[in-house]
Amino acid sequence: MPVPPHSSVRVRLVRDALLVRALGGEDKDAESLRARGVSVVEDPYLVVATCTDEGAARRAAAVLEAIEADSDWLVVTSRAALRALSDLAGEDRVRAAIRSGSDRGMGFATVGDTTRTALEQLGASDVLVPAVSTAEALRGELAGRPAGSIVAPQGSQAMKGLASGLRSLGWRVDEQVVYETTTVAARPPTADRLSSGGFGVVVLRSPTAVRAVTGFAGTLPEQTAAVCGGPTTAAAARAAGIGTVVVSPGPTAAAVADTVLEYLSRPGA
């Protein structure tokens, strides 16, 4: 039986969980896992950084101008996009643009509560978040509304399904890359241990993380489960040949931690 999330009982876990992190990213997974008694090893396999090419500032300016002037919706699928806009244009400039967009009735949408909170802190209101925190679910929400225009600041590895699906329904989508997600330059210290079955679980938050893990560690042994934050990442894990894939019922740190704990608490885990 799984241990309730806030129980004081701790299950003795015989296998560590590897938390694949991104340098420059933010997450609460480690805190949630340790609060449940899970032994966690954190290792950055990815780097998330604001774009620094000569066109980056121009792209950020285009996003802010669209927010102020004519886009019907601002769609943000990651807090990293908001951080990048602030890095490139200044937080005050971002706040002013979002305030102007809100005043003229612009719609705001994200795929999860943490990004919604970040948007609200910058002045957005009535932010649309789908019941299931995936890009596919957000596409379904928007598909039921009159087609209009969207500006979408995003990362270099952003999935294209949301934009392409909406374009097929008559939406105009302006995608602007403002941050990059890349693999770390050096082989992560945990890669050998991971490839040899030294972890009971590896926590994966994105298809990019899947590619980084399999690129450094190869095909994972059957005894190592990939706990994925959602169905898109799970599909990428299966496509990469990972044999044991467990999907969290939700993308929050608490939901992922509960899924890890339940898996590792099974007999024989």
The sequence of SSEs as H and E is EHEHEHHEHEHEHEHEHEHEH
Helix content: 25-40%
- Output the CATH topology of the largest domain: Rossmann fold
Our estimate of the beta-strand percent is: 15-25%
- Count of alpha/pi helices: 11
Shape: elongated
Largest β sheet strand count, sense and barrel closure: 10 strands, mixed
Biggest sheet strand order reads: 5-4-3-6-7-2-1-8-9-10
What class do helices, strands and sheet pairing give?
alpha/beta
Question: What is the C-alpha radius of gyration, as a whole number of Å?
Answer: 19 Å
The CATH architecture of the largest domain can be named as 3-Layer(aba) Sandwich
Low-confidence residue ranges: 1-14
Q: What's the total number of strands? A: 10
On the 0-100 scale, what is the average pLDDT? 90
The end-to-end span amounts to 13 Å
Instruction: Just give the CATH class of the largest domain.
Output: Alpha Beta
* Total of domains: 2
Give the quaternary arrangement of the chains. single chain
